[in-house]
Amino acid sequence: MHVFVTGGTGLIGSAVIAELLGNGHSVLALARSDASALAAEAAGAEPLRGALADLDVLRSGAAQADGVIHLAFANDFSSPDAVARAVAEESAALATLGEELIGTGRPLVTCSGTPHVPGRASTEADPLPTDGPVGGRGRAVTAVLGLASRGVRSTAVRLPRTVHNQGTGGFAGLLTDIARRTGVSGYPGDGTQRWPAVHALDAAVLFRLALEQAEAGTSWHAVGDEGDQVRDIAAVIGRRLGLPVESVPPQTYGALGPIFANDQPSSSARTRQTLGWEPKHLSLLEDLENIQP
C-alpha cells in the first residue's frame, strides 16, 4: 500500500514508518517543517509539507493514498486551554481524513489512549471516555469508527500511558523530565496506581497489522505491560538520576494530575489472539535503565 502518515517523525511515527517500509509499503508523510521533511526523506518516506491544521493538505494526502495512519497530536498539556486546542485541532483533522475516505473501502487507522475502568484492567471492548480533560479525543475516535458504516475500514489502536524507546517517551518520560527539573523523582499518592506501557517498536507492528487486516469499526490495544506501579517507575528513574523518590501532590502534574493519579491497567489479550500481535522488545522498567544521568 501507499500509506499517508501524520505524525511520522515522532517517537511512534518514526517507528511506524520504518515498520511500513520494511514490510513492502511506501509512505507519504505529513511534514510541518523543513526539519521534519528532511527527517521523513532520510527515513525513506516522501514528505508532504503541511501541518495538522492544514485541512486541504490532509485531504490531498488521503486522496493520494491506499490507506491512512493518523498519529499527529500537539501534545501540549501545559494548561486546560492548551489541551482543548490540541483536541479540537485533531478532531477537525480526523473528520477531514474520514470524509475523504468515505465510500472507498480504504483503511483509516487512528490512535487513542486505553480507557480507565475502575477495579480492573480495561479491554478492547470497553468504550473510550468522552468527558474529562481529553474526552474530545474519545468523541473524535468514536466518530471515526462510526465511518465503518460509510465505506471506510476505520480502526483505532489504543496506546497505553507510556510508549517508550531508549528510556524516553510517554508518561514515564514526563516523570523523568519533572524529576530532572525538580530534583525529586515523584509519584502521585501512594504510587500503587498502575500504568500500562508498550515499546514503540512493538506498537509500530500493531499499527501495520491494523492497516493490513483489521476489520472496520474495531479497536485494538497496543499494551505490552499490563500495568507497572508508578512508584516502581519512579524508583528506577530516581536511581538512574541519583535523586530521592517521594510522593508528590497531583498538582505537580498540572492538567494531567487527575489522569496521573488513576489506577489504569489495560489488557491486550484480544489483540494478541485476533491479530497475532506479540510484543518482543524491552518492558518499560527494563527500558528505563537506558535513562542517562
List the helices and strands and how they pair.
Elements: E1 2-6, H1 11-21, E2 26-31, H2 34-43, E3 46-49, H3 55-64, E4 67-70, H4 80-101, E5 107-113, H5 135-146, E6 153-159, E7 162-164, H6 170-182, E8 185-188, E9 194-199, H7 200-213, E10 218-221, E11 225-229, H8 230-241, E12 245-248, H9 257-260, H10 269-275, H11 284-287
Parallel strand pairs: 1-2, 1-4, 2-3, 4-5, 5-6, 6-10, 7-9, 8-12
Antiparallel strand pairs: 9-11
Helix pairs in contact: 1-7, 3-4, 4-5, 6-8
Region (Disordered): 115-134
Domain NAD-dependent epimerase/dehydratase: 3-218
GO molecular function: aldehyde dehydrogenase (NAD+) activity
CATH fold naming of the largest domain: Rossmann fold
CATH class of the largest domain: Alpha Beta
**How many domains would you count in the coordinates?**
2
Whole-number mean pLDDT = 95
Give the second-level CATH assignment, the architecture of the largest domain.
3-Layer(aba) Sandwich
What gyration radius follows from the Cα positions, in whole Å?
18 Å
Number of strands: 12
Label the overall shape. globular
Percentage of residues in strands: 15-25%
| Element pattern in H and E | EHEHEHEHEHEEHEEHEEHEHHH
